[in-house]
Design goal:
168 residues; SH3 type barrels; 2 domains; five-stranded antiparallel beta sheet; 2 helices
């Protein structure tokens, strides 16, 4: 499992000319991102004290301490924001932080290795596990549903999948 930090949002650019920024939250409750402040970059080199001002389409307008101009806010565009893992809530048994799934080996119900999780995608409808097969350069998108993925064992770093016929 990923230790240390988990990505909870990203800065998507400047908002206005007063140094405010647009924030996209990846939290289940989007406004929870403020409660994890100060947030850091992935390597922890920079820290951001974040204060949400108001909601906007696809995110929030926020202030970051020490960011006073549009140019400073523009320079932060694309920066991912990370919270310390111990600040985040414990999840129910059937929920997972995406970062914990990346790299786990995936097996079918017969015990044959299908590959490992390269990433977790969500394009609006449902989560998909991007599986990198050891014997191929292409990846396969597996629906991350109870039917297709009945077992996720984070302790053993194993996922048991029952993929739809023909997917693999």
């Amino acid at each position: 499992m990923s230790e240390g930090r988990i990505c909870v949002g990203a800065i998507s650019g400047a908002y206005g000319v007063q140094g405010e920024v647009r924030i996209k939250s990846f939290c289940a409750q989007p406004d929870d991102i403020e409660s994890y402040s100060p947030l850091t970059t992935e390597d922890g080199a920079r820290s951001f004290a974040l204060a949400l001002i108001r909601p906007m389409k696809n995110g929030f307008v926020a202030r970051i301490a020490d960011v006073a101009t549009k140019e400073q806010a523009d320079a932060l565009k694309g920066v991912q924001l990370f919270a310390a893992r111990d600040q985040l809530p414990n999840l129910p048994d059937d929920e997972y932080y995406y970062t914990d799934l990346v790299g786990i080996e995936v097996f079918d119900t017969g015990g044959t290795s299908l590959g490992h999780v390269k990433s977790v995608q969500n394009h609006g409808a449902a989560d998909l596990l991007e599986i990198h097969r050891a014997d191929a350069t292409a990846t396969v998108l597996l629906p991350f549903t109870q039917a297709a993925v009945p077992t996720v064992d984070l302790a053993s770093r194993r996922i048991i999948a029952d993929p739809p016929e023909g997917l693999f």
